[in-house]
Design brief:
The structure holds two protein chains of two kinds.
Chain A (H helix, E strand, L loop, with lengths): L13 E9 L3 H7 L9 E9 L3 E9 L5 H4 L10 E6 L2 E7 L5 E3 L2 E2 L15 E6 L4 E4 L5 E3 L4 E2 L1
Antiparallel strand pairs in A: 1-3, 1-4, 2-3, 4-5, 6-8, 7-11, 8-9, 9-10
Chain B lengths: L13 H16 L10 E6 L4 H13 L3 E5 L13 H8 L5 E6 L4 H8 L4 E6 L5 H15 L6 E5 L6 H10 L5 E5 L8 H10 L3 E4 L11 E4 L10 H7 L18 E3 L20 H19 L4
Helix pairs in contact in B: 1-5, 1-9, 2-9, 3-4, 5-6, 5-9
Classes of the chains: A mainly beta, B alpha/beta.
Chain lengths: ~150, ~300
């Protein structure tokens, strides 16, 4: 009998693996981290089976190491994401993302009457609930909740 | 408070609030003081609000200040497509302080971040109107002799009424008890009730006026507007339920006073006006003293 052929997402030598991204939010993560604008080698897989998330996505980025401040920006769309920092094919560090206390310039205020939806204003929110994300707009003071969350 | 803006009542500490109220007492005793001589105040009213604008302009005039500005957006460069950012950057050069009313929520916070002079929010859409809250607090303290431990009744549109929300949040600093009287469609939103729960304050909800108002120290009336109802039949059902009439005041406490942010339509019957417990027109006068106090505090004059 022939061994079934298996293709796996190739390992990286140096860089970051972001695992446990909800599959539906993969492209939002790519957008928030600006991965569509960099030259580095990136591989990703999506709709992979996950006991925790149902379907998950994974991103492997070669040659990039994120600061906490940068990576926490994805917490809005991938709160359970885990990072593996790879050096010389070995996992040297594991990190989790944390929802930050303030969100600047990522999310859109859901209030159509908010100034941020009229003029060029960088949105700014205070995170009032982290488990089920709820953001209070610095400008109009209205709450944008998880189900109405749009990434700019 | 010098050089600070006043955008939301939450920007002020309890101490700031009391200082403004104390200063307003001074202006009530002596309203004409030329403290703003040589100063220019811009009043930018991107939507009309006769009452608020006249109250501010009266306050500025009594202080000897000069006013530049407009009373609706059609007579400003907004009609040419200018952004708020550009308007504020420009007007900032012409004045020592900006008073602004704008229909867009959060516009006052945005303006305060652009301007180098203090900005007073005179209403930003359904969001905040802190000078109204301060004059309400002044009126409550003046009539009750204290802000502590009062029983506040709020009546009418408690869902959309920003004045009741701000006043409720402010009064929660002084251990108030609240009674909310509103139709189901216009009930106090859950987020505010949650806030009171977290503060450990008591509140009670009612759908109609009853003898319960005999316990009130303050009855704060608001307008129930037809356009707030999704179903016009619902409006017809409730439109006369939330009308205060003189005979209903028979068993109310002697210290009780009726407040209303005005304009009134029919929610307070005119027969109440003769009752000494009616306080809404005096409340409007208090607005001038309170705004004098706010202007001087933010300019660091007093």
């Amino acid at each position: 009998m022939k061994e079934p052929k298996q293709l796996s997402v190739s390992a990286i030598q140096n860089g970051t693996v972001i695992d446990h991204i909800p599959a539906k939010n993969l492209f939002k993560v790519i957008q928030i981290l600006g991965l569509d604008h960099i030259e580095n080698q990136i591989t990703f897989g999506t709709n992979l089976e996950s006991k925790r998330l149902g379907r998950k996505a994974i991103i492997k980025i070669s040659g990039i190491f994120f600061e906490d401040e940068d990576i926490n920006r994805i917490a809005l769309v991938a709160p359970e994401a885990k990072l593996n920092i790879i050096r010389d094919y070995e996992v040297v560090e594991k990190r989790v993302v944390k929802v930050p206390d303030t969100i600047i310039g990522i999310a859109k205020c859901m209030n159509p009457k908010c100034i941020t939806n009229f003029e060029q204003v960088t949105t700014r929110f205070r995170v009032v609930s982290k488990k089920i994300v709820a953001l209070k707009c610095h400008y109009c003071e209205k709450i944008t909740n998880q189900e109405n969350l749009h990434i700019i | 408070m010098k050089n600070r803006s006043l955008v939301s009542i939450d920007d002020l500490t309890t101490n700031d609030i009391l200082k403004i109220l104390d200063l307003a007492v001074e202006f009530e005793k002596n309203p004409v003081q030329k403290l703003l001589e040589g100063r220019v105040i811009a009043t930018l009213f991107f939507e009309p609000s006769t009452r608020t604008r006249l109250s501010f302009e009266s306050a500025i005039n009594r202080l000897g200040g000069k006013i530049v500005g407009f009373s609706d957006a059609s007579s400003s460069s907004v009609s040419k497509g200018e952004t708020l950012y550009d308007t504020i950057r420009t007007v900032n050069n012409y004045c020592d302080l900006i008073v602004m009313r704008h229909p867009v929520e959060g516009s006052a916070r945005f303006a305060s971040e652009i301007a180098t002079v203090p900005v007073i929010n005179a209403g930003d859409g359904a969001n905040q109107h802190p000078t109204q809250t301060l004059l309400d607090l002044y009126s409550i303290r003046k009539t009750q002799g204290t802000l502590d431990n009062l029983n506040i009744f709020m009546v009418g549109d408690l869902k959309y009424g920003r004045t009741v929300h701000s006043l409720m949040m402010a009064m929660s600093r002084w251990n108030a008890t609240f009674n909310f009287i509103a139709p189901d469609e216009l009930k106090m939103p859950d987020e505010f009730k949650l806030y009171l729960d977290n503060m450990g304050l008591k509140y009670y909800e009612h759908t109609d006026f009853t003898d319960i108002i005999s316990r009130a120290d303050i009855i704060y009336m608001t307008r129930v507007q037809r356009e707030r109802f999704s179903d016009p039949i619902e409006y017809e059902k409730v439109k006369n339920v939330y009308v205060l009439k003189d005979k209903m005041l028979k068993n109310t406490k002697p210290n009780m006073r009726i407040l209303h942010p005005l304009p009134r339509v029919n929610e307070i019957h005119i027969d109440v006006d003769r009752n000494p417990k009616a306080y809404y027109f005096e409340q409007a006068l208090n607005g001038v003293y309170t705004r004098q106090a706010i202007l001087c505090s933010l300019l660091g004059i007093k």
